[in-house]
Amino acid sequence: MNVVEIIQKGVAKAVEALYDHTVAPEKVNISVTRKEFTGDYTVVVFPYTKAAKKKPEDIGADLGAFMVKDIPEIQNFNVIKGFLNVEISDAYWLNFFNEAYEIPNYGFGAAKNKKVLVEFSSPNTNKPLHLGHVRNILLGWSCSQILEAAGYEVDKVQIINDRGIHICKSMLAWQKYGNGATPESTGQKGDRLVGEYYVKFSSEEKAQIAELTAKGIEKPEAPILNEAREMLLKWEANDPDTRALWSKLNDWVYQGFGETYKKLGVSFDKNYYESETYLIGKERVLEALEKGVFYKKEDGSVWIDLEDVKLDHKLVLRADGTSVYMTQDIGTAMLRYDDFQMNKLVYVVGDEQIYHFKVLFEIMKRLGASYADGLKHLSYGMVDLPTGKMKSREGTVVDADELIAEVIEEARKNSLNSGVIVELTEEEQLSVNTDIGLAALKYFILKVNPQKRMLFDPKESVDLQGHTGPYIQNACVRAKSILRKAKEENLDFSDISGYPNPEKAGTDLIAIIARYPAIIQAAAEDYDPSAVAAFCYDLAKNYHRYYHEFPILKAESEAARSFRLKLSDMVAKVLTSGMELLGIQMPEKM
To answer: Could you give the count of Cα atoms lying within 13 Å of 513 in the half-sphere of its Cβ?
Structure first.
């Protein structure tokens, strides 16, 4: 039983004993006490005013006195405006600390025997990965890590959008203007090379429209767009030359994606390709049409009526029999269940697709999918720049590779100024600077709640001070440095029984560490890495303060030194664990 459960059970017992009123312990409203007040946890007593027939302040005093007398873990209390703040005893915190210290993977939950599939990234093969993809990728990867830490079995997948008119646009532009350019001949990553021709198509289309408009043609359509449509028809007809061109450019892009994924430290258990899945959805829709789940209009198009759940009518097959995105997603969901037998399927997709996924999930319910209730759309806000919204076709995106290089370079400059890692080899320095730069980038993005639209300021993201990833890394590095020195001096800090009444700042750190298991479970339930990010920052901030206020290696007594060393070790372990859930590595020096 953790300390929160102890308090909840104590409140329930007190309410029944004092006011002859039954309350379920899990219904007791409890939170961490705010920093400006004395106490560890705060109990809301307003729900008991009716049963007690007393003022909230008096109820708080009654409950506090009862629990101090009845519960050994509670040593004191105070009441502020009807809120009961309780203080936990040093003996409890020390006992908890000793037990938690010995637990491998402290904070991780027991196996839930449930499988979760997380889909993220899911790029188009007509452009390189950019800042918007980076937020998607980091959210998907971190949520996967958190879900696994919470006790789920997790698989990571992506659907690669490798077909359609947008793909043909980059293919056609390369064919017309590329002069046989390859990644090898240009020295460019394949995804960037292909992306340049997507931009080139857009500029040529605009130029042709402007020329036709100047000639007095109303609502002109660029000839190059018709050429792209013809190419798409050839692709769908399996024209050998078109398919060969498509395969060549896509292979370049896949190699480029792979390099970026490696830099970000992410991988997938399985890739799905739209060019392979879109026909599966069509087959499943036609099967369900026979069963009356869908209906056909006079023009031959297939629809579903969702007006009863306020989702209107939705097209699932065009009149010519071709698929739409919904068709593909239906088939892909079914295919994934065949492959993984998952209990939950999480789609990490921007919030502009909220309606689409509401419709998809309702359709899956009506198709009788056993996992339909486990479908989740992890929607997230778009990423804006100080200059406005990014536009791929205009080339105004923040390239993922350039962004990664920029934050690593900023870390390198800061390292040179500090002079701490100059004795390391060039390879070791690059490794440290890469860890620091990626921490700056990843933490900047993941500390924001997914639901919020965020403004990405490149200058702010590489600021290595304040509420940043490197700030948290530095707390861990400080702890590790102290522990290395302790090891060099052969100091044993396993026994801390000689320090029964540690400083309040020390037990405050233990109290923060005690929240880690619940933080993981809550973050998994809410699909919210920002909760873990906030926890890591809180722990790091308090350890930085502790480090400055209390001598560790030169503590006033051997008992105090042992306690502070052991606490530093635990802080380092928990920070390393928490930041790994965000995909962030901890360097030994910085």
So the answer is: 29
> What pLDDT score was predicted for residue 8?
97
Residue 326: pLDDT over 50: yes
Distance CA 36, CA 568 (A): 25
Rounded distance between C-alpha atoms, residue 552 and residue 565, angstroms: 7
The crossing angle, in degrees rounded to 10, of helices 400-418 and 240-264 is 20
Beta-carbon count within 10 A of 269 CB: 14
User: Which one, of 58, 404, 158, 92, lies nearest residue 265 by Cα?
Assistant: 404
How far apart CA 97 and CA 89 sit, in angstroms, is: 12
Segment 339-345 shows an average pLDDT of 97
Q: Are 274 and 163 a contacting pair, CB within 8 Å?
A: yes
Residues 326, 357: Cα–Cα separation, whole Å: 9
Q: What is the pTM of this model?
A: 0.93
Count the alpha carbons within 13 Å of 470 in the hemisphere toward its beta carbon.
Answer: 25
Q: What is the pLDDT of residues 453-504, one digit of tens each?
A: 988 776 676 676 789 999 999 999 999 999 999 999 999 999 999 999 999 9
Could you tell me the two tokens for 22?
């039954």
Q: How far is CA 557 from the centre of its chain?
A: 43
